[in-house]
Design brief:
The protein has about 230 residues and is an alpha+beta fold. The chain has two domains: about 140 residues, no CATH class; about 70 residues, no CATH class. Helices cover about 35% and strands about 15% of the residues. It has nine helices and six strands. A hairpin with a 2-residue loop joins strand 5 and strand 6. The longest helix has 17 residues.
């Protein structure tokens, strides 16, 4: 289906979900964003929680089973390009670059997402269990719901278990020691983290009900290790 008249945000949300991607917020860009086609609205898409149908769609896709690298990126591009073509809108991806599109900044701008001590954005409802995979560039300036301006859940977390749980101390207030994390995953104790997923991420108490399932956690850990020489 190709839209021929004014677009409605609810219709775009429905089309995105039918394609296998969760709506993740929207904003009105300005000239500083330098986006192709000078869109009036940017609609972020991705995964929302461990029960997301988006992950189920990817898990059943041929890209997941073909054994080639970058399965999630290839699947995202295939379904995203088809969605954008059907709607007659543009699309960009966080894995396009360099230069890289500033998806984290866009997510904060759209509302609901905040920086966390360990790096990934945290959401009041989804915790650390969400992702941004694409952005639709809609020509029209759509009416948007009120921005989610709830404070970060990290603001009231006194213990910060995300910074103290990693078995090799790869996460701290000074940043993320990627080589230490990758070396641990390749070592004799690495399989435990590969199976369970990042222990620091799982230690966050926010939105525990939305934690990724075992298959999704392992997929991301293995993808991280492959990208760092594993």
């Amino acid at each position: 289906m190709r839209y021929t008249g004014p677009m409605d945000l609810a219709d775009l949300h429905a089309a995105a979900r039918a394609a296998g991607l969760d709506p993740r917020g929207a904003f009105h860009p300005d000239d500083s964003d330098a986006l192709p086609g000078a869109p009036g609205t940017v609609l972020l898409l991705g995964f929302a929680g461990g029960n997301s149908k988006a992950w189920a769609a990817f898990a059943a896709a041929p890209e997941r089973a073909d054994g080639a690298d970058h399965a999630l990126d290839r699947w995202t591009r295939r379904v995203g390009d088809a969605l954008a073509a059907a709607l007659g809108v543009g699309i960009v991806y966080p894995f396009d670059g360099p230069p890289w599109w500033p998806f984290q900044r866009w997510a904060i701008r759209a509302g609901g997402a905040h920086p966390s001590p360990m790096g990934p954005l945290i959401h009041p409802d989804l915790g650390l269990w969400h992702a941004y995979r694409a952005a639709l560039l809609v020509p029209a300036r759509l009416a948007l719901p009120p921005r989610d301006d709830r404070p970060s859940p990290c603001a009231t977390c006194a213990d910060t278990p995300c910074l103290t749980t990693c078995p090799v101390g790869a996460l701290s207030g000074d940043g993320y020691d990627v080589p230490a994390c990758a070396a641990h995953l390749r070592g004799p104790d690495g399989p435990a983290c590969l199976e369970a997923g990042c222990l620091a991420r799982a230690a966050c108490p926010v939105a525990a009900a939305h934690r990724y399932g075992a298959d999704q956690r392992r997929f991301h850990m293995e993808a991280f290790l492959r990208s760092h020489g594993g």
